[in-house]
Automatic annotation (TrEMBL):
InterPro entries: Bact_solute-bd_prot1, SBP. It comes from Paenibacillus anseongense. SUPFAM superfamilies: Periplasmic binding protein-like II (SSF53850). Keywords: Cell membrane, Lipoprotein, Membrane, Palmitate, Signal. Transmembrane segments: none annotated. This is Extracellular solute-binding protein. PROSITE patterns: PROKAR_LIPOPROTEIN (PS51257). Pfam families: SBP_bac_1.
């Protein structure tokens, strides 16, 4: 996820390294040696070990790596497990080429950050990566740090071949925005069901909620990307009210895969959206909404009453854009998702844990244990957490009224640029940590926090890898997306639903895709 950058004001002059380290060891700060530095741990790490790290997981690949004497986080990692850490940060867009060059030359880094499960499986198949299964029981805190979904994503052929890289952020980008000022004017309540939502959208379209005497408002605006995919542009969120979603949404129920994009409930979801289209409550510009920026312009102009957008649109800089573009700051509020007819109440599904840490197969047992010890410290040490998640104590965060306070929003642009390199270490930040984002509007924090309860579990379909022998895969996906758009827009009547399913089977060999899913789900232990 791309993290939003905020402006800063200067705090204080930077003190020397000694003072910074002292600040990290005071009674309110962080102890670089980790809370687990008992005598037994000291003996365990008695011999210093060199560890090379290929870190493409950084949140800022352009930031230069600072010298060791200035790199507080690196010093903490090195002291915690007695290592000499050599970190390599590839430039954006060059990571795969750089890593493959290193592998081809036999110079495989000890610790590798990989961005996709496909890469993790591929490098394991090539004999590059170690099987971590025999070692993980020695690291219970690390195992507890990530949920089952995340660990499942690092499993392959019955083995655990990676450690989850970092939490994906959920519960913010798919927020349900509604014009509360329009609700008040029309004497309507916040909708809680699909039927109530439809009535609100209809009123927003027909009853002149902005009071300008013109027929220029709409109940909803969504879109689709340039490839014709409906995901992430709003319509998919409406489909979740019925418990379904476009490709590749696949669940496992009763020991069988359930393909949500062809489930009978998808027909109901499409009928609902088609009802919206027929009633003309959808802004007709939806067919051209193929980038997030275009949808933002609709939000800023304030002529649509309900949208699916990022909760950070409540932040001051976006509020200012609303004022500049629309002439006012509408009373947008973020509401819970509607509860559908089958009990589904979903903002979004938890993002798939594609990223991971892997360890070179060339590493011996002692090195594997040392690396896993470092990762356990990095991700689970509570005292060290703010140093890695937020930055440097006294600069990016401090103790305020007995609590940790992220102060990055107070830094100047110069200070921000001077310490861009802390982005190399932010991986331990939790995906639901509102303090990490340093929101300036309390309503953003409230929306982010409230949305967490409506984030559904990751779908098992994300575990599937492409079958190279399935030559119709791309055409099949394109046909599915195009058909869903035709059904919801009314270009193809839903009476043709059965013909759509038949065409999938006869022309696009849907059975091959189903067989692949069954095979891989069996290999993953999800079905018997």
């Amino acid at each position: 996820m791309q993290l939003k950058k905020v402006s800063f004001t200067i705090l204080t002059a930077i003190v020397g390294l000694g003072a910074l380290l002292a600040a990290c060891t005071d009674k309110e700060g962080i102890k670089p040696g980790a809370s687990s530095n008992s005598q037994s741990e000291s003996n365990k790490f008695a011999t210093k070990m060199k560890i090379s790290m290929f870190n493409q997981g950084t949140f800022n690949a352009a930031a230069p790596i600072p010298p060791r004497e200035e790199d507080i986080q690196r010093q903490m990692l090195e002291k915690a497990v007695n290592i000499d850490l050599d970190m390599m940060v590839p430039q954006a867009g060059q990571a795969t080429t750089k890593l493959n060059t290193l592998i081809a030359g036999g110079d495989i880094p000890d610790l590798l950050f990989l961005k996709s499960r496909a890469d993790l499986a591929q490098y394991y198949d090539q004999g590059v990566l170690a099987d971590l299964t025999p070692y993980l029981d020695q690291f219970p805190e690390l195992q507890k740090r990530f949920g089952k979904d995340s660990w499942d994503a690092t499993s392959y052929l019955g083995k655990t071949i990676g450690v989850p890289g970092y939490d994906n952020v959920n519960g913010i980008s798919r927020s349900f925005f509604i014009r509360n000022d329009w609700l008040k004017k029309l004497n309507m309540k916040v909708p809680t069901t699909p039927d109530e939502l439809f009535e609100v959208m209809k009123a927003f379209t027909e009853k002149d909620p902005d009071g300008n005497g013109k027929n220029d408002t709409y109940g909803f605006i969504g879109g689709m990307n340039k490839e014709g995919n409906l995901q992430t542009y709003g319509f998919d969120s409406l489909m979740w009210m019925f418990g379904v979603n476009p490709p590749s949404a696949i669940e496992v129920k009763d020991n069988k895969p359930v393909f949500l994009f062809i489930d009978p409930k998808m027909k109901e979801a499409l009928a609902y959206i088609n009802k919206m289209m027929t009633a003309k409550v959808v802004d007709p510009d939806w067919v051209t909404m193929n980038t997030p920026d275009l949808l933002d312009q609709k939000l800023f102009k304030g002529k649509v009453g309900f949208m699916i957008r990022d909760a950070r649109r409540l932040e001051p800089d976006y509020q200012q854009k609303m004022k500049e573009i629309g002439g006012e700051i509408p009373e947008w509020i973020v509401i819970p998702p509607m509860k559908g007819p089958y009990g589904d109440q979903i903002v979004e599904r938890k993002s798939f844990q594609g990223n991971s840490w892997a360890i070179s197969k060339k590493a011996d047992k002692d090195k594997i244990i040392r690396i896993l010890s470092m990762l356990e410290y990095l991700f689970t040490d509570k005292e060290a957490y703010p140093n890695f998640a937020y930055g440097i104590k006294g600069i990016h965060w401090d103790i305020v009224d007995g609590k940790i306070k992220n102060k990055t929003s107070e830094l100047s642009k110069d200070m921000k640029e001077k310490y861009l390199w802390v982005d190399h270490y932010r991986m331990p930040r939790r995906g639901d940590d509102a303090e990490y984002f340093s929101f300036q509007n309390p309503k953003t924090t409230e929306a982010f926090t409230n949305n967490q309860q409506y984030v559904g579990p990751t779908l098992p379909g994300n575990l599937l890898t492409a079958d190279p022998s399935d030559t119709l895969a791309a055409d099949r996906t394109r046909f599915i997306n195009e058909s869903l758009v035709k059904f919801m827009s009314g270009k193809d009547p839903l009476t043709n639903w059965d013909n759509f399913l038949k065409t999938l089977d006869t022309k696009f060999d849907m059975q091959t895709y189903k067989d692949t899913a069954v095979k891989q789900f069996k290999e993953a232990g999800l079905i018997k």
